[in-house]
Amino acid sequence: MMHKALVACRAGVGSSLMLKIKVNEVVKENNLQLVVEHSSLDGLNGFDGDMVITLIDVAQELEEKKVPYKVVGIRNIVDKEEIKTKLLEALAE
């Protein structure tokens, strides 16, 4: 089953763009069933996927707001091993 994720941060520029690049590398290297989009948090309103990938502090805020998506929080946006582990966990749920 193909999943759809939104990589987002508050502004939707620097950190989330770097995170999207790393997520796409992990998806490709591991043949994950995941399509990745990129936006600021404002993009959540029209997002029709099932997962949000963001920085750990933003992830905690989204979980507190009880957004209707699986939230994946990443501490180190260039750590592909962390990204891989967390994506595999999220996709397995």
Contiguous runs where pLDDT drops below 50 for at least 5 residues: none
Tally of helical segments: 3
CATH hierarchy class name: Alpha Beta
CATH superfamily: Response regulator
Domain count, please report it.
1
Q: Fill in the CATH topology.
A: Rossmann fold
Radius of gyration: 12 Å
Count the beta strands: 4
Major β-sheet, in short? 4 strands, parallel
Helix content: 40-55%
Provide the spatial order of strands within the biggest beta sheet: 2-1-3-4
Helix-strand topology string: EHEEHEH
- Strand share of the residues? 25-35%
How does the overall form come out from the CA principal axes?
A: globular
Mean pLDDT: 93
Give the terminus-to-terminus CA distance: 13 Å
CATH architecture tag: 3-Layer(aba) Sandwich
Structural class by helix and strand composition: alpha/beta
Describe this structure in words.
The chain has one domain (about 5-90): Rossmann fold (3-Layer(aba) Sandwich), CATH 3.40.50. Helices cover about 40% and strands about 25% of the residues. It has three helices and four strands; from the N terminus they run βαββαβα. It is globular. Helix 1 (about 15-30) packs across helix 3 (about 80-90). The longest helix has 16 residues, at about 15-30. A four-stranded parallel sheet has the order 2-1-3-4, with helices on both faces. With about 90 residues, the chain is of the alpha/beta class. The mean pLDDT is about 95.
